[in-house]
Design a protein that fits this description.
Largest sheet: 3 strands, mixed
Bound molecules: zinc ion
Strand content: 15-25%
Number of strands: 14
Shape: globular
Oligomer: single chain
Helix content: 25-40%
Length: 329
């Protein structure tokens, strides 16, 4: 009984807190930040809220970036991919910095950024890196990541002379998405692009199965279930609108309309690019890709790197019309 309660509680927390955060992660809408002067930015001390320990800690930009790349991208990825991730992570955090007019982390007052990967950017301490990679691999992988951060030192992504907001995600599933379709705001450099580079991703495709009553309760629509029982083989769910990239924008279930983002959140789906089928009493959802699909696709980034593209080419591919420049340029 206690186990069930705990599982239920964990699930509830996940549904209420983590999933919505996952869906909004990546965009910090606000006043565009000016590009900080290089000397200042290089010597920056960040106020980082560690969600694992509940502490607000100060750290140098480089230490922060190494921990972010370690957390957010497999260290085995190609070097150009790690460099692209380092530049995206640097741009992401600088844009949030309060001293440069950013909004900071809106979940943790006083922090520039937090280590919750579903809200700001993930981050691993040295101990956590050792645990993740093992003590034998740690020195090599740490050097590889530190090398990517050093190689790109000072480089940020800009659009029209301003730091961009640099969202990224695991696997777009063949095509990235326009920011407007996910967050409702048109952003010139966050336009969907074809991504024929991420088919090797282990997160390219996934299936998740729910008993029908659970789908009905998660969507809070009894009608869907009733109709499903009556239709024998089909369920009362239909796609109303899809984006050009194949993601579901609007869906009707049991007479109610939902956005794809809402359905993803309520059902805990990996993306809004999904199909479903009925098998017995269960509804099976098959998703393509993992994440919101906006901005840089990490597995696509590695695919491009393996094909010989540089980190600059990769960033300029996933972020439309941007420049890669030094803080001071
Ligand atoms: Zn945060
Ligand atoms: Zn992709």
């Amino acid at each position: 009984m206690r186990r069930f309660f705990l599982a239920g509680f964990t699930f509830l927390i996940f549904t209420i807190i983590v999933l919505p955060a996952l869906i909004v992660r990546g965009l910090n809408l606000g006043v565009p930040a000016p590009i900080p002067p290089e000397e200042e930015a290089m010597g920056l001390v960040l106020k980082v809220f560690r969600v694992e320990t509940g502490e607000l800690v100060e750290m140098a930009l480089k230490d922060y970036l190494v921990g972010v790349v370690a957390a957010e991208m497999p260290a085995e990825f190609a070097e150009e991919a790690l460099k692209a991730q380092a530049v995206a992570a640097r741009t992401f955090v600088l844009r949030r910095l309060k001293v440069y007019g950013g909004q900071g982390c809106d979940e943790h007052p006083g922090a520039d950024i937090c280590t919750d990967p579903s809200h700001c950017q993930g981050w691993l301490s040295v101990e956590e890196q050792q645990e993740k990679w093992g003590l034998v691999n740690y020195p090599r992988l740490r050097d590889k990541i530190a090398g990517a951060v050093d190689f790109t030192a000072g480089l940020v992504i800009t659009h029209g002379g301003e730091l961009i907001d640099a969202p990224y995600h695991s696997t777009c599933g063949g095509h990235t998405e326009d920011a407007a379709k996910v967050w409702g705001q048109e952003i010139p450099y966050l336009q969907g692009v074809a991504c024929p580079y991420d088919f090797a991703s282990p997160r390219f495709e996934e299936e998740i199965s729910y008993p029908l009553p659970e789908v009905a309760s998660r969507l809070d629509t009894e009608v869907a279930l009733a109709a499903a029982g009556g239709l024998g083989g089909g369920v009362d769910m239909a796609v109303v609108a899809k984006s050009g990239s194949g993601r579901i924008l609007t869906l009707r279930a049991g007479g109610k309309e939902f956005t794809g983002v809402e359905v993803r959140e309520r059902l805990g789906l990996k993306s809004t690019n999904f199909q479903w089928r009925l098998e017995g009493e269960n509804l099976i959802f098959k998703t393509i890709g993992y994440g919101h699909g906006v901005g840089l696709c990490q597995y696509g980034t590695n695919g491009m790197a393996q094909e010989g593209h540089t980190f600059r080419e990769i960033l300029q591919y996933y972020y439309t019309g941007v420049d890669i420049e030094n803080f001071t340029d």
